[in-house]
Specification:
Blueprint: E1 2-7, E2 10-15, H1 22-28, E3 47-50, E4 53-56, E5 69-71, H2 77-89, H3 99-112, H4 118-124, H5 136-150
Helix pairs in contact: 2-3, 2-5
Length: 156
């Protein structure tokens, strides 16, 4: 079956099996930022935005994205790169395997929550697992990024 959707601002289509998951289809279309970590919706590595909402692509049937807007890390280059610099400055990028999904979720959180508390940040990002960082560097990076946005020194 053919499914048509917008991928990172461009029209896309894929010939899929009825049981295909979005994660696999996006990887086949060249979106290498979308990673498979657990296949059980527990790690956050496959986070994408569907119509602007953060979703785990390993839990989405590809057929369900007909006519929808899908955004991956490849589609938000400058903003992702900017937040990534905050992660690097805090030594929180480590191996980098989880970074694309983590960045997608952080930027979704920034769009959804205004002035989140540390507890709200932790709750929002609780589904993003990282085996390298211990999370404190990530939290510092998020707080510094939010402050920079507030002061107009970061993408809005």
């Amino acid at each position: 079956m053919i499914v048509q959707f917008t991928l990172n601002g461009k029209e896309a289509e894929a010939d899929i099996r009825p049981d295909a998951i979005l994660l696999d289809v996006l990887r086949e279309l060249g979106c290498s930022s979308v990673k498979c970590g657990c296949e059980t919706t527990n790690c956050g590595l496959c986070t994408v935005w569907i119509d602007g909402v953060s979703r785990l692509s390993c839990s989405v049937l590809a057929a369900s994205v007909e006519g929808r807007k899908i955004t991956t890390l490849e589609g938000i280059g400058k903003e992702a790169e900017e937040f990534g610099a905050f992660l690097a400055a805090e030594g929180a990028e480590q191996c980098g395997y989880c970074s694309p999904g983590f960045i997608m979720n952080v930027l979704a959180m920034v769009r959804e929550l205004s002035d989140p508390s540390i507890d709200e940040i932790k709750e929002y990002l609780s589904g993003n697992l990282c085996r390298c960082t211990g999370y404190m560097g990530q939290l510092r990076a998020i707080q510094k990024y939010l402050k920079a946005r507030e002061e107009g020194r970061a993408c809005v």
